[in-house]
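Researcher: Next entry in the queue.
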Amino acid sequence: MSAPFEDIRALIYRASLTLDREDWIGFLALCAADFRYLITAYSPELRKRMIWFDHDLESLKALLDMVPQHLRRHGTLLRHVSVGMIEPAGSPDCYTVTSTFQCLHTELDGTTRLYAVGRYIDTVTMSDGRVLFLGRDTQLETRDLGIGSHVPL
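Model: Structure for this entry, 153 residues:
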């Protein structure tokens, strides 16, 4: 496996670690200036994809800056990611990465439950020796998130 693919895998895993730690600044530092984050789910009843979350880097930063002021679900989230396909995305140094994930929620009393599952469809770029996210489409299989969350999955 070539070094660029290992760097891409490391980016995906680092993103999960920063999100698990609620290190919003660390997560945003992994993103290119024109980054876009989506959370989508397919509705069989509507027979179309629903967009639940759609933010560019600036609006995502503003949202994450406000997280401490929101009423939130107690406990922590832990993301388990399995990087699958890494494919060229049409332009040099740009790749599409398809990963599956499980997001677990642990309550303050220590009980853990599966919160959500789905796929990350990431677009990444390699520039100046760094790998950065250009976009993430979190495609959920889970469509019932209870009260939901203000933080990216």
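Model: Residues 3-20 form the longest helix (18 residues).
Researcher: Noted, moving on.
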